[in-house]
Fold this protein.
Amino acid sequence: MSNDSNAPDCDVVIVGAGVAGAILAWKLGSMGVKVIVLEAGPGKQGDDARSAYIDRFKISGAPYPLRPAALKNDDLFTNSSNYYQQEPPSRPKQGPIGARAGADDPADPYSEYNIISSEVTRKGDWFQTNYERQAGGATWHWLGNAIRLLPTDFKLRSTYDPRPPDGSRAHDWPISYDDLEPWYGKAEQAIGVAGTGQIMSAWRSTPYPMPPIPQSYSDLQMQAGLSGQNATFHDRWTDTDYPLDLQPSPQGRNSVPNFDGNGRPQCHGSSSCIPCCPIQAKYDATQHVDMAQKTGNVEFRGQSVAHQVLVDTTQQNLPITGIAYRRWEADAHGNISSTPGVVTGKIYVLASHAVENAKLLLNSPCGSITVANQSDQVGRNLADHPVALVYARADAPMYQYRGPVSTSGMEHLRDGTFRKYRGAGRMEIGNDGWLWPLGDPYFTPASLVGQGMWGPELAQAVSDTLTHQTRIGCFVEQLPNPDMRVTLSGKLDVLGIPMPRLTYGIDIYGRRALSASVAAMVKIFRTMIDKPVVQYNYMEFLDANGTVLPDVERNAGVEGTPNIFVREGWFGAGHIMGTHRMGSDPATSVVNADQRAHGHANLYLLGSGSWPSYGTANPSLTIAALALKTAETISKELRQ
Amino acid sequence: MNVDDFISLSELLVGIPSPGLPPHLDPKTARFYMDQLCAWSIQGPFMDQLLSTWNVIKDQPPDLRNASVNALIMNDPNLGPLARQVILAWYSGFHPWAEGQQPTPDPAFYSQALVWNVAYAHPIAVPLSFGYWQTPPPEAPNEQR
């Protein structure tokens, strides 16, 4: 871009073209800033790729192809040797169920709802969540929930100061909800959010850009069952009642065709938000890749894997001087070749998600330490929103498997004085039957045929089961734990880059949140169902069908036909957080309130890795809001 | 092997006629499933025997025919597993959750899985209309609605 050999290649180098990187590139490009974006996976892909992913899903269940040069956590399966994971920490370190820190720390009053302590579920104690390495990032398969964090989520320590017996402690953000609120409004406009009403205490200065996505028939049936009985959940930690009712979820999908002039259609209810929306009615970040390219100021370099942040250690402010990367190609036989490159700019932004950002920093020497790691917090505090699932057979048909995968949530348990003792939880009300816990609609016919059914008896039984299915998932809050972390493994990928090693588990605060959430979800279904019978199940993928195994010991003495099912074990939410946390103190945090790395004047780290505590909101909207806020900071800096 | 026999046996096994199910199964899909089961199923070599057994009993009165299906097919150690795979092929469209190994799949058959019919739902990625999900499916029988 310049004849001056000492001049940088551009103003701003961005690593990663997901929601954070693409929005930042668009915003800066539209202000005339010259940007180069390195993307590890393929660059912009069109509608052909969209339909190809869906076809792949239909025939294999795995929509996104394995790309050896851009591996991620869900390639082949969570514990694949392609992506290294350490043995999970043993349970005793986290303390037995009911462990108390002292006389004023009560034992878990929901221990009978515990779902993660049996020998079988121990096997699931891995980091189960995933992301995507291609332009658009994880928004290809995000659910579309565009939910704000709550004001107390930014002030968990100063509001509730939880002190569970494993030693985990909360951290406040260096910014407040009030600080971020204007940026939430801008992010909702950029993504295109359809919604209505204020969620809990998350006040709004601007209306939603679009009216809400209609709640599903199933949602309305559930709401009718709850409101008819004025259902509440009694929190045993604090002896407090919380209402149980549903609200339409704010969603990043169009309720109005082409609402922002980008040509995206209105949602047609394809029931395909995951693995990806076939018509792009659901926002994904390829929209901002397009918009960034149209500014004429942004160059995207696909299949370009950043592997080292270069730093000048001779200067006191440790300026970043370039990003080393490898540009890869795969031949017809899948053989990978690559060429090295370095890209330079005035400012550098890592926006490659919490795992890859940490991996890149830890692979970047800076004197006796690594880049941005004077606090030794890079890679630490790896968190997710662990999910508990309870599913049920309702008394009346719910007619799921129709429309967006989720259209409502139950928000009231996202905040309360119980957070002194246990994590909060947000309930996502599913429209996808028992797909998540069991793999339906395929599991039910396999199971019934296996029981010997055929003919009209089979058709009726499959129909009755599928039409009456309903499911809730509760996404719960963990506390930051420095022992849960991303480090570099000794294994190298095909490009010779160290693979990340993940160490993860559920802390006591999160485990208590799971137990209380199961109690609340069981309460909901007990309220809806005339003759409720609860059964605890776990599932092993022993064969192609999977096998549901009732927890015989736990179900002993249960009489009647089970119609409420608690899925033992937990699931990942796809919400990777905490590996370069934000804070005012360089000794205990990695980035400041602008997401600028402490100790490096020209390095920014974007994404939910910056979150010092995690709340219960799906992260994408907050990631976008923070990216827009940082875009303003960077543009001001460049103007100085 | 006669695909017509495969179709008539399949229609009986999946439950036609039943609410939600189509009146008949598609011959092209039937040929695909029959060929695929022969090719990849461990019980594939018994397809001839399955269809010839069916050919003998298919014209019996319904009660006797159903009893014969149970005795001669569903309880047979070779024909029973194959018959169950036939049922699951039709219900699942050879989705990976179907029993046994993977056949050579075609995404088109995903959409023909009978689970969508009896659930009064639709396969994914079929654009319909905004907001249809707020009301019960119009094709659901009145007693269900």
Q: What stands out?
A: The mean pLDDT of chain A is 92.
